[in-house]
Amino acid sequence: MKQQMNVLSIDLESWVHKYFLGDKSSVKKTQDNGYICDATLDILKILENHAIKTTFFVVGEIFDWYPWLIKKIKSMGHEIGFHTYAHRRLLNKKSFLEELTKGKHFIDECDIKGFRAPEAIMKKEYLPILKDWGFTYDSSIYSEFKIFEPVEGLLELPISSYPLYKTNRSIQFPNNLTLSLLLREIPFGSGYFVGLLGPNIQWFIRRSNKKNIPVSLATHPWQIKEPPKVNGNLEGSLFNRVKMIPYNINRRKTFDFLCHNYEFVPMIKLINAYRYK
Predict the structure, then answer these.
(1) Chain segment 159-202, per-residue pLDDT in tens
(2) Using CA atoms, how far apart are residues 267 and 68, in angstroms rounded to an integer?
(3) How far apart are CA 181 and CA 163, in angstroms?
(4) Alpha-carbon gap, residue 209 to 78, rounded angstroms
(5) Closest CA to 116 of 168, 191, 5
(6) Looking at the domain assignment, is residue 262 inside a domain?
(7) Is 1 inside a domain boundary?
(8) Residue 2 lies in a domain
(9) What is the pLDDT of residues 193-227, one digit of tens each?
(10) Do residues 118 and 89 lie in contact, with contact meaning Cβ atoms separated by under 8 Å?
């Protein structure tokens, strides 16, 4: 079955980046208590067992906490991307520039070329900034996979979705997980649907690959390795707790299934293979 080139990227963030977002980095590191190291080493072992190289979109704080861990990822042949410094939602240009500035040492040291915004919320006005900062590509929208060039010299590699009907709509920014999106397409590449669908996600992969369209899937460490239990108050409202359920339904089962049955490559390799097709 291992024929088509696909991507299964890892958004390398800790569970604390969901529940302690406003706290100082040192507090988050204490709360993490080594979880992200254990989870990442677990993921690396699975990838190594299946001879898979992929892209890790890393939160800059994790590089500050455990630089050896990120260097290990890179030394094993995986690509390192930037997932902001503290996993803050990019509500405006000011917050976007702050995240880039705080993560500059990490971006420079790891020679990072790829970016993904938290929750895949990306405004088009941010793209020229990425280009100016030396990034080659962004991966922060949902779309049927195609390598776009929304800003001259900067590429957009979307997380895969499956259109429910034919449309002439042009590429949209932002194009994140909303009701409006779900009425047009199924973003099966999102961590939400990777968890919700489990192994059934192969239906979408096969449909795309049969048309020679690669798929780009995304997942998180806390979807693969069980994070610590947290107090209900930290989990937020009932709505937020319910919203997280689909992410966590299948956990490691889906990741193991995908690694066993499909070939995955780093995003930069997919760019080189498909950019001009």
Answers:
(1) 999 999 887 777 889 999 999 999 999 999 999 999 999 999 99
(2) 23
(3) 10
(4) 23
(5) 191
(6) yes
(7) no
(8) no
(9) 999 999 999 999 999 999 989 999 999 999 999 98
(10) yes
* Cβ atoms within 10 Å, residue 188: 24
For residue 69, give the CATH number of its domain.
3.20.20.370
Q: Is residue 58 part of a domain?
A: yes
- What average pLDDT does the structure give for the chain? 91
For the chain, the DSSP string reads ---S-BEEEEEE--THHHH-TTS-HHHHHHHHTTHHHHHHHHHHHHHHHTT---EEEE-HHHHHH-HHHHHHHHHTT-EEEE--SS-----SHHHHHHHHHHTHHHHHHTT--EE--GGG---GGGHHHHHHTT--EE--SEESS--EEEETTEEE-PEE-EESS---PPP-SS--S-HHHHTTEE-TTSHHHHHHHGGGGHHHHHHHHHTT---EEEE-HHHHSPPPP--TTTT-SHHHHHHHGGGGSSTHHHHHHHHHH--B--HHHHHHHHTT-
Q: Provide the domain limits for residue 148.
A: 7-274
pLDDT at 232: 52
Q: Report the phi/psi class of residue 134: left, alpha or beta, with left for phi > 0 and alpha for psi in -120 to 50.
A: left
Residues of the chain with pLDDT under 70: 1-3, 230-241, 275-277
Q: Please give the Cα distance from 86 to 29 (Å, whole number).
A: 12
Residue listed under structure tokens 């520039």: 97
**In the chain, how many domains are there?**
1
Query: In whole angstroms, what is the distance from residue 158 CA to residue 268 CA?
Result: 13
d(CA 138, CA 148): 10
